[in-house]
Amino acid sequence: MKRRTPPDSPLLFDTAPLVPDFRLELKARKAGHWPVAGADEAGRGPLAGPVVAAAVILDPKRIPEGLNDSKQLSAQRREELFVQILATATVSIASSSSTRIDETDIRKASLDAMRRAICSLAIPASYVLTDGLDVPPGLDCPGQAVVKGDARSISIAAASIVAKVTRDRMMARAHAVFPDYGFAAHAGYGTAQHRAGIEKHGPCSLHRMSFRPLRKGDDGPETDELIPE
């Protein structure tokens, strides 16, 4: 019997990008849970502005084509899908302000916004799929935290798009009130333009004073995350 030698290149499925699908939702449905909501947030890393969460219950018969992790989509495509999601799905949105973030912490503020979004759905969810490591406490239904959920669950992907577009629009409006920081360009992330604005004008009421470099010392959260498109 001829032995096969191991390949000298990595397996393709180890490096191929994830594509969200409806399998987790159907698994929950098979277990007796329906409808299933996907939930995600946008804005954990910025130096300014709220963290925004969205919860989405998709209609299996009217799922918009091209749903994906919001970070994998262009701004124009996100806007197009945002409109389609709102027209075909049950959607709820909630946010936690920079004040709330400073009073608690970014994790608690994010989970609280996600909880409020889920609990405010016009159609109560029987089960929830959330992006990340945590299911928000205080829900009226069971849930499952899904690592890289926005790349695995199409419902979470839809929520990521709604949260991202909503927050970007909020920060564009904030730019009209606080034009010295360039919020419309970077949505509050720690770009060179934003840091220069803080250096010249000082922080405004939208800034998260518990985040470095706004918080003096070494015990504030780091914010050197990749800046999304």
Verbal overview:
This protein is α/β, with parallel strands linked by helices. It has a single domain, classed as Ribonuclease H-like superfamily/Ribonuclease H (Nucleotidyltransferase, domain 5). The chain is 37% helix and 13% strand. The chain has helices at residues 12-15, 23-30, 75-88, 98-103, 106-119, 154-177, 183-186, 192-201; strands spanning 36-42, 51-57, 90-96, 127-131, 143-146. Strands 3-2-1-4-5 form a 5-stranded mixed sheet, sandwiched between helices. Helix 3 crosses helix 6 (154-177). The model is unreliable at 224-229 (pLDDT under 50).
Describe the protein's topology.
Elements: H1 12-15, H2 23-30, E1 36-42, E2 51-57, H3 75-88, E3 90-96, H4 98-103, H5 106-119, E4 127-131, E5 143-146, H6 154-177, H7 183-186, H8 192-201
Parallel strand pairs: 1-4, 4-5
Antiparallel strand pairs: 1-2, 2-3
Function: Endonuclease that specifically degrades the RNA of RNA-DNA hybrids.
GO biological process, one term: mismatch repair
Protein name: Ribonuclease HII
Question: Summarize this, please?
Answer:
Residues 220-229 have a biased composition (Acidic residues). With 229 residues, the chain is of the alpha/beta class. The protein has one domain: Nucleotidyltransferase, domain 5.
